[in-house]
Amino acid sequence: MASEVLTGKTAIITGSGQGIGSEFARSFAEAGAQVVVADLNEANAKNVATELCDGGGVALGVGVDVTDEGAVQSMLEAAVGEFGRIDVLVNGAAVFSSLIMRPFEEIDSAEWRTVMDVNVTGAFLCCQAVAPVMRRQQAGRIINISSATVLGGRPNYLHYVTSKAALVGMTRSLARELGSSGVTVNAIMPGSVETGIPRDSARPEAVEKTIASQSIPRRITSADICGSAVFLASDASRMITGQTVVVDGGTEFV
Ligand SMILES: NC(=O)c1ccc[n+]([C@@H]2O[C@H](COP(=O)([O-])OP(=O)(O)OC[C@H]3O[C@@H](n4cnc5c(N)ncnc54)[C@H](O)[C@@H]3O)[C@@H](O)[C@H]2O)c1
Which residues form the Ketoreductase domain (predicted)? Predict the structure, then answer.
């Protein structure tokens, strides 16, 4: 792929204050995009944006709670105000690394609802916000970050896995609503990724087991996921919609 395949494009990446999202932001900036780094943690979002600008990129850091319609609208207005258009939305914001794994009987309804609210409703609200802009442009890319946990099932994470499965249905169905407006909607399912952020699901024994199940038996890094996101954001993927790209090193579920 040419090195600046996203030149002239504006991308909103939610959840890009840390982890995989921040690596998406770096790779999108490297590919020439203007990046809106959006995160609940505003300081992190601004730090990532500053890093990108210091490196010669173009970026805007904004604080947003994706469950709050007003905040999502403000994010959109800030992005359009700064860059004039929205070409790409990456729905990466999620309750993930802060989750404690527990049997489903022990997940209280408040925690269940929070996970659904951020991981599913948040993505829905962001799609609703960008759709009018993308329809006007007759072009756009929406990329939902699902998870390969949906394929194998993962115990003690029922709210999380369920929320990520919902994004696959959302992707498939929204693709059918937006296709005639030139907007593609796709999902990425990362396998277990080393992000540098500690989390309950990445204890050493679990990581070892995961690596052993992969056809390419090494730890997946955030950078390993970026190529698929840049591709789905680029013109090269223009006839691909409603699809889910699995980036898990070829995991065998037995
Ligand atoms: N790391 C993995 O192994 C892995 C695997 C499969 C899928 N994923 C998915 O990839 C994405 C990134 O994963 P990660 O490991 O970097 O996660 P992470 O938990 O480190 O980062 C999530 C980001 O989302 C932000 N966020 C949380 N609630 C928000 C809200 N209400 N509004 C806006 N931002 C909010 C957080 O502040 C954080 O910066 C997530 O969607 C996750 O589910 C991760």
Answer: 9-201
